[in-house]
Amino acid sequence: MMEHPNIADYHLDYPRLAVLYEATRELHASLDLTETLNRVIEKAVWLVGAERGFIMLCESWGEPRVRAAHNLNPETIAKENEPDYALACQVLETGQSTLKPDPPDVSPTPRTVVIVPFRARDEIIGVMCVDWETRVGQFTTEDLTLFEAFAEQATLAIQNSQRYEMMEQNCYSYIASISHEWRTPLTVIKGFADLLLAKMADTANEDQKKWLNIIRSYTSKLLTLISSEMEISRIDAHIKISSVNLAAPFEEVVSDFRSQIEAKGQTISLNLPNLPPVYADQWMLSKILTKLIDNAHKYTPSLGKIIASAEVDNTFVRVKITDTGIGINSEDQRRIFEADFRADHSVVREQEGFGLGLYIAKRIVERLGGKIGVESEPGNGSTFWFTLPIATTDERG
Fold first, then answer.
1. What is the percent of the chain with per-residue pLDDT over 90, rounded to a whole number?
2. Mean of the pLDDT values across residues 275-300?
3. Higher pLDDT pick, 344 / 335
4. Predicted confidence (pLDDT) at residue 310 exceeds the cutoff of 80
5. Rounded alpha-carbon distances, angstroms, from residue 360 to 232, 233, 341
6. CA gyration radius for the chain?
7. 47 burial via Cβ count (<10 Å: 0-12, 13-18, 19+)
8. Cα 184 vs. chain centroid, distance in angstroms?
9. Alpha-carbon span 119 to 121, nearest angstrom
10. Which residues make beta-bridge pairs with 98?
11. What is the side-by-side order of every strand in the sheet holding 64-70?
């Protein structure tokens, strides 16, 4: 059985211990696995003065997958950084850290790569690799020792996030199962309430009509909630990533919304330059756009404007949904993507819903390997944005 070594076993001097503490003190700040992995690789690159790096984890089906990267495109590492990727797979198999220079045919200048495993008791759950791209540099054995000590602490943070993610997935699977059982009887109840209201339109008194409308209203809300919960539970199971052209889902979603947007006196415009394909699931991409445009439509007053646009941002495409709506204060921006969160604003209170739309959008974006955020000021509208990795030339067919 492999045991976690004690930090003291690494025999680090005080300056390196201080640097190690600085690098590890924020690793447990989040239980979100994506955030944790991004934080780990960012701190790892900083720790040893590298320029770029990536983290590869063993997935539940047994295959390794790049889950986070710094100054690299996670989707293209296996092809564009083949020597480092192959070496990382080797470390994943052997569990032995490596400090290895590039062969002369790969890099004529002295350069080393350092790769260490994430060791959890008797198994290796992943590896972490860092190197330089634009300058000559060589890591030392002291750097390797420091990196191994950091990886030990990072493993604990990653495992905590993985356990939380598994617990959350199990919870949503259970909710989806229960929701499926609830959906049929609730639909029947709502159907009979609708039927009674139609049949008794001329004979029911006001109290009876009020009671039937209450039944119909609350069953509708419960059915909406159940649909949202089932939607969340499907995200991980149904995503199929491929090369996707943005134009088709954009045009489809904007077309679907155009009539209700115009009915409110709003306008919506689409600004799509000639963009490269992205890695995504087209159906899920449409879901993201639907959630964000629906959000803009709800919280933008009559005569307001909504603009859907996209642009290339390094190795990603950045999609933006901009509106001239009520805006969001800085405190609410920090919580806007949380499940069940609704801002305390009169316009928000007028809207029905459970505060799950933006949360669902965030889960999908992160599952696709992108990021999501918002820029806003109260009274000056909002811009919700998300990124998706650009598909490589080979994947575009």
1. 27
2. 91
3. 335
4. yes
5. 6, 10, 12
6. 25
7. buried
8. 32
9. 6
10. 115
11. 64-70, 52-58, 123-131, 112-120, 98-101
Q: How far apart are CA 161 and CA 148, in angstroms?
A: 20
Alpha-carbon distance 110 to 67, whole Å?
A: 28
Looking up tokens 């780990």 gives 40
pLDDT at 14 exceeding the cut of 60: no
Q: Which residue has the higher pLDDT, 169 or 272?
A: 272
Domains and CATH numbers, the chain: 7-163 (3.30.450.40), 240-397 (3.30.565.10)
Q: Taking the CB of residue 49, how many other CB atoms lie within 10 A of it?
A: 11
pLDDT above 60 (res 53):
yes
Average pLDDT, the chain: 82
With bands split at pLDDT 50, 70 and 90, how would you rate the model's confidence at 307? very high
What are the pLDDT digits (tens) for 212-239? 889 988 888 788 777 776 776 667 666 7
Report which of residues 367 and 288 the model is more confident about. Answer: 288
Cross-strand bridge partners of residue 312: 317
CA–CA distance from 341 to each of 93, 234, 333, 361, 381 (Å)? Answer: 43, 21, 11, 14, 19
Cβ–Cβ < 8 Å for 337, 359: yes
What is residue 81's predicted lDDT score, i.e. its pLDDT? 73
Percent of the chain topping pLDDT 70: 81
Give the SS3 label for residue 384.
Answer: strand
All residues at 6 or more sequence positions from 357 whose CB lies less than 8 Å from its CB, including other chains: 228, 291, 294, 295
Burial of 28 (0-12, 13-18, 19+ CB in 10 A): middle
Instruction: Give me the amino acid identity at 10.
Output: Y
Partnered with residue 278 across adjacent β-strands are: 244, 390
Rounded (10°) angle between helices 206-238 and 141-199? 150
Greatest alpha-carbon pair distance for the chain in Å reads 91
In terms of Cβ atoms closer than 10 Å to its own Cβ (0-12, 13-18, 19+), residue 222 is middle
Q: Are 75 and 369 in contact (CB under 8 A)?
A: yes
H-helix segments, the chain: 14-24, 33-47, 77-80, 82-94, 141-199, 206-238, 247-263, 282-298, 330-333, 346-350, 357-367
139-165 b/e (C-beta count within 10 Å ≥ 16 → b)? beeebbbbbbbbbbbbbebbebbbeeb
